[in-house]
TrEMBL record:
UniProt keywords, alphabetically: Cytoplasm, Methyltransferase, Nucleotide biosynthesis, Transferase
HAMAP family membership: Thymidy_synth_bact
Protein's recorded name: Thymidylate synthase
Protein's pathway: Pyrimidine metabolism; dTTP biosynthesis
Keyword NADP set for record: no
Residues at the active site: 201
UniProt-annotated location(s): Cytoplasm
EC number(s) on file: 2.1.1.45
Binding site for (6R)-5,10-methylene-5,6,7,8-tetrahydrofolate: 55, 224, 318
Species: Amphibacillus indicireducens
PROSITE patterns: THYMIDYLATE_SYNTHASE (PS00091)
Catalysed conversion reaction: dUMP + (6R)-5,10-methylene-5,6,7,8-tetrahydrofolate = 7,8-dihydrofolate + dTMP
Amino acid sequence: MSKNEQAYLDLCEKVLDQGTTKEDRTGTGTHSIFGAQMRFDLQEGFPLLTTKKVNFNLIATELIWFIRGDTNIQYLLKNNNNIWNEWAFKRWVESDAYQGPDMTDFGNRSLTDQAFNEQYQAEMQSFKERIVSDDAFAKKYGELGPVYGKQWREWKTSTNETIDQLKDVIDQIKTNPDSRRHIVSAWNPEDVPKNMALPPCHALFQFYVADGKLSCQLYQRSADIFLGVPFNIASYALLTHLIAHECGLEVGEFVHTLGDAHIYSNHVDQIKEQLSRESLPLAKIELNPELKSVFDVELDDITLKDYQSHPAIKAPIAV
């Protein structure tokens, strides 16, 4: 059994057994603990969960989207990545320009009302097609505001200058690897209350170089354990691989520190099903040896090898 995956499964069990029942912004309700940490040895293998199938292409294309500083879902949809659709769709259906059927609370209503779900699916499909085909529509309604990519690559200062945090950190790793300032923050207090479709859950990450290896620690303020955290683990592990590759380093650890770690009340059965399964050997990551810069990465530069898993487990997303 993989020690890496067991760290995640142990967290699931702990939150189920010890979590406090809490209300939340989405109205769904959670089982929650505050303060948890998982460690993943990236030398052991790539920490993509095996107790349920996780779509690696979604993780890789989202990370490339972040790295490019993009904040519009058009790129994602063109790569068949639908994981940010609901937040952009919510902005569209709440706008004055939207004239379709009432989509209030579409996330929950679509689960319990079949007639509404059919309407919702039709409206969402129409929305996606317009985002892909109509650049002007996409520019207005596919935009999520200054979310992760914007903060990573173009943090706006009080003097209207910008800071490319990710580029600066990579330069620091190359020139001053022992620095304790290899930090990128997505949490911008000015943008959080008014501009972002979703305030950043994975808020800050830091790199650490020792013994020729690059490690990364992420602080995640809010952690959806069943749907979100498996993606976050793999995404930051992949980012560590990419930056280590550019900097001529091996990979070390990914350390995942969680603030509010929660299981949504409508994910409990799915978590229990996952916990009933045995983990399988971990996959490996191979990167194109010709890739010189993180900022040039394409999906074809990343290969996931020997991934095996149990079947996927579906669950509703809380918006």
